[in-house]
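As a warm-up, study this chain.
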Amino acid sequence: MTGIRVVVEMKARPGQRDELRRSFESMLEQQAPNLRGFLGSARHEVVGDPDLLVEIAEWESAEARDAHMKEAMAAGTYAPLFAQLAAPARVMVLHRLP
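Now compare it with the structure written out below.
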């Protein structure tokens, strides 16, 4: 499988979406240049839910993302972001239908 998109829904603690966004973007700015297979991402707000932040990322492959996630989880890379969430993030890994 090649070329995937990953949709991540992050529910911030009440009133803290902008803080979560800043933290996430700062982390991404530092790490993105070194992420093998990462093609980029964009953050979105959800109309009607002031605490929900959605990231849509593009990766060269599911394998590249999986390798990154294993390394990041072992290193605790996302722990500061997890501490800002009101609930666990929801992740969907998608590939385009032929």
